[in-house]
Write a structure and sequence with these properties.
single chain, alpha/beta, binds NADP nicotinamide-adenine-dinucleotide phosphate
Length: about 260
C-alpha cells in the first residue's frame, strides 16, 4: 500500500510486542511504513523499535496500552491522531487464548477476552473507518483464527470471539468496498509464538505449526487484491474444507475429544 501524499504510510499494529504482531511490524518496516506499536509491554516494543530503525529508514513509535480496558479504543485513536492525521493500515492483532472448562474460568479473564477481541476491535474499527472512507483509501486487518470456523470445546469463548471477527469483517468489507477501503480477516492456524503458553495448552493441531512470518506474508500479499478472508497455506485450506464438508456435530465431538484437558 502506498501513501498518496508522498510521505511514508502509517500503520498501527496492536499486540506488537511479540509473536505475529512483531512480525507484522518487521514486514511493514521493510515496506517503508512508519509504525505505532501497541501492547502493554513498553520495553519489548522499544527493543523492537530499535531493531527496526537500525535497519530501515522509518519512524517507529510505541504506546503502552491495555486494550482490554473499557476506554482502550478511544485511547488508541487519540494516540494515533497525536502522531498522524491519517492511518493507512490498522492491524487488530492483540489477543490471547483461554484453555479449559468454561465454568472453571475466572470471570475477570473471560471479560478481558471479550473486551480485547470484540469490544475494542469493534470500537477501534468504528473510530478509524470514517477517516479511511473520507480518504477513499486505507485498510484494516483483523486477526481471527481457524478456530473461528468451528465450535471448539475447552476453547469455547476464544473460538466464538474469532467467529465473531470473521463474520463482522466479511460484512464490513462489503460495506466499505465502494470507498476503496479494504478489510481483511486473517485466520492463522497453529503458529509458533507465546500464544499456547499464555493459553495454557500445547498445540495439538495434527497439521503442525507454522512460523509467524508465513502468516504475515500471506496476509500482506492478499491485502491489495486478495480475498477478504485469508487462510494461511495448505493447512488453512484443509481446515476450511473440513469446516464446510464435515457435519458440525461430528466436528465438535472430535474437537472435544482432542481438546479435553487431561486429569
Ligand atoms: N499463535 C497461534 O497459534 C495463533 C493462531 C491463530 C490466531 N492467533 C491470533 O494471533 C494474534 C496474536 O497472537 P500471537 O500468536 O502472536 O500470541 P503472542 O505471542 O502471545 O502475542 C500476543 C500479543 O497480544 C498482546 N496483548 C495481549 N493482551 C493484550 C492487552 N490486554 N492489551 C494489549 N496487548 C495485548 C501481547 O502484548 P503484551 O502481553 O506485551 O501486552 C502480545 O503482543 C492473537 O489475536 C491470536 O488469537 C494466534
Amino acid at each position: 500500500m502506498e501513501s498518496q501524499t508522498g510521505i511514508r504510510p502509517f500503520a498501527i499494529v496492536t499486540g506488537a510486542s511479540r509473536g505475529i504482531g512483531a512480525e507484522y511490524a518487521r514486514a511493514l518496516a521493510r515496506r517503508g511504513f512508519d509504525l505505532l506499536l501497541v501492547s502493554r509491554n513498553k520495553d519489548r516494543m522499544n527493543r523492537l523499535a530499535l531493531e527496526l530503525t537500525g535497519r530501515h529508514r522509518v519512524q517507529i513509535d510505541s504506546e503502552a496500552l491495555d486494550l482490554a480496558e473499557p476506554e482502550a479504543a478511544h485511547r488508541l485513536y487519540v494516540a494515533a491522531r497525536q502522531r498522524r492525521p491519517t492511518v493507512n493500515l490498522l492491524i487488530n492483532n492483540a489477543g490471547f487464548g483461554l484453555f479449559g472448562e468454561f465454568v472453571e474460568m475466572p470471570m475477570a479473564r473471560i471479560q478481558e477476552m471479550l473486551r480485547l477481541h470484540v469490544n475494542t476491535v469493534v470500537e477501534s474499527v468504528r473510530l478509524f473507518l470514517p477517516g479511511m472512507i473520507e480518504q477513499r483509501s486505507g485498510a484494516i486487518i483483523n486477526i481471527a483464527s481457524i478456530a473461528g470456523f468451528f465450535s471448539v470445546p475447552y476453547l469455547a469463548e476464544y473460538a466464538a470471539t474469532k467467529a465473531f471477527l470473521i463474520t463482522f469483517s466479511e460484512a464490513l468489507a462489503e460495506e466499505v468496498r465502494p470507498f476503496r477501503v479494504r478489510i481483511q480477516v486473517c485466520c492463522p492456524g497453529s503458529t509458533e509464538t507465546d500464544f499456547h503458553v499464555t493459553a495454557g495448552f500445547k498445540p495439538k493441531n495434527p497439521l503442525g505449526t507454522q512460523h509467524a512470518a508465513v502468516v504475515v506474508d500471506a496476509s500482506l500479499a492478499a491485502l491489495e487484491r486478495g480475498p477478504t478472508l485469508v487462510l494461511v497455506g495448505w493447512r488453512g485450506r484443509v481446515i476450511s474444507w473440513l469446516s464446510r464438508c464435515v457435519p458440525r456435530t461430528i466436528l465438535v465431538r472430535a474437537a472435544a475429544a482432542r481438546m479435553k484437558p487431561s486429569g
